[in-house]
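Quick entry between incubations.
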Amino acid sequence: MPVATFLDFLRRKQRFLLTGHENPDGDCLGAQTALYHLLRALGQEVAIVNPDPVGKSFDFLLRHTPFQHARAEEQLPGFDVVVLLDCCQLSRVGVLGQRLAQQRPTIAVIDHHVGSEQGDGTVCYVDAKAAATGALVRRLYRELGVPLGAAAAEGVFLSLVADTGWFRYSNADAEVFAMAGELVASGVDGSRIYDAMYRRNHPDSAALLADMLGRHRLRLDGKLAIASLDKALMERAGRADFDTDAVLDPLRSIEGVEVVALLKERFDGAVKCSLRARGDVDVQAIVAAFGGGGHKKAAGATMKMPLAAAEAAIEAAVQQAVAALPTRAR
Ligand code: 5GP
Ligand code: MN
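Done. Structure below.
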């Protein structure tokens, strides 16, 4: 759908409920922040309601932007439209998604994942080439000629750094660097945001990282690095508010590794799987077979099976994907 059509639709609505996927990450929260202030600037009513609270690493956003999270006993604010950011289906919004679905809402999707036009959106602004959902919201400001305020600028910056690994991944394109340059020129303090996100860890965090890295195994002649985190370790991580993404990078740094798999046992027994590709393997295609999604180089899925079974299934799927690569890429 052309962006002008999407914006015409939004402009005709008055009350917005912005939401996103469970355990909202920096891109999701940053995009919500920017969209909140855009809609407010247009004179509309907006509430951000997420399935989970804002994590400690992102609490600097709360200075300028109100975030709520859905509690079963509380009523949701009234709305004309639900805006899904950084995902495209209410099924990714947890119990809140189920509550919203009962109201058969009109849904607007703003997302950068492969295939998100085919989600629950009544209207969509989707660009799978965009590095971050926050970049899409930044484009909406431009389309509408609304200047970006300080809070929104911080949100867009957070989106960009969250999804490009602080400008290191292959999705850090010219648009990302141009936007980031502009944001820093307008006063965003990247170093302060970095410190807020990564320099306030719990005393157990270093030991946790060591224990989690200690769980990794190299498989498939060193092409797959896989780490499985059982419930006990996940509970410890929860108590320390530890971001398990920290495990991914050291595993990705091993020469010869094509795919990193992080499997986390959840409290309900399901397994949250995160895959990262370093070379030409398409991990989005791998997780699609398990009902997941994401991007070519970063994707995830929720697998309803025991941890050991999930490990075996992922190893088999990665083996197939690696075998299918042209010899040169292997
Ligand atoms: P992460 O591994 O950091 O949770 O997610 C990596 C990418 O895959 C993100 O873009 C995320 O939105 C997507 N992703 C993660 N889990 C799921 C899932 O269960 N379903 C879908 N459709 N996408 C997921
Ligand atoms: Mn994203």
